[in-house]
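Question: Hello, beginner here. Any chance you could explain the protein record under this note? Any guidance would be welcome.
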Amino acid sequence: MDYIGWRRRWRDVAGLTQQQLGERVGGSGAYVSMIENGERALTKRSRLIAFASALGVSITDLTAQPLPPRSPEEYAIYRIAPALRAALDEQLADDDQTWPLERWRSQLAIAMTVRMACDYTSLAATLPELVRQTRHLADTDSMEGYTYSAEPPGPQR
């Protein structure tokens, strides 16, 4: 997202000079030039939105992101984003089944293992429900007094 210089064609097609675009986004022509030449990163989402709006294009058009997946692994990562958004944003119902803490710990260990193994297909299948369950546990008092350890659960000694 930080280098969009090769996308300057949007400014050219819109018939805008660097100065005109700079004024529309609250900057200057020099600012636009630095962004187009890769000398300045466009890292703030609000600035990216301002540029896309000023040019009348989508952020996807401007950045050429996200790229379509080229492999099953990339597809797994590509499809996980909406599922994670839903797990983070959905309203939890009072009658949702909450995992027992030991199941949560076990699923967390599995997620950590498949992530370290770069098994993104398994991670995509595991992580959204783990996030949803974590939210559910956090919204209840089920985790009171629980301390997280990075060590996967093993046999109790």
